[in-house]
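Late entry, evening session. Most of the bench is empty. Finally got around to the prediction I had been postponing all week. Sequence below, unchanged from the version circulated by S.P.
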Amino acid sequence: MKNINKLVLSAFVSVLMLVAISVYGQVHKYYSPGSVWGVTTIKIHSGMDQAYLEYLDTQLKKESDISIKNGFMKSYKILRSQDDDAGWNMLILREYDSFASLEKNAEKADEVLRQATGIDDQKNMQGYTDRSKIRDVMGTKFMRELILK
């Protein structure tokens, strides 16, 4: 009786593993999962391009370079559209290794940036308030890059 139970259990596990491998193969049949990108859409207020570009070239660049140097982020990109008639006119893209590394490093990255820049929570909030006069953050999404096979 014990042998029959072991045989049934091993057959069940074998079938379950075959199904799991088949499903995994179907999911990743057309692509390989790549980096995770934080995509922030920005609407720069009329006439405020130079003021916002100054912020990007100073504080955002400094913070991003520190994050890359410390391994919290892989890269970043800024994309500006030529027309201003859409709901947004700039994308800020931040590349991370994975969702897990993004979540794991969030607190450590905040602390490293706070020490490196000398910006505490109060100064950070004042910066948000100041920048809200020159741009609106329309939203941020985190997206997985798909590398087609």
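Two things to note before I forget:
Residues 41 and 91 are 5 Å apart (CA to CA).
The chain has a mean pLDDT of 85.
Will write this up properly tomorrow.
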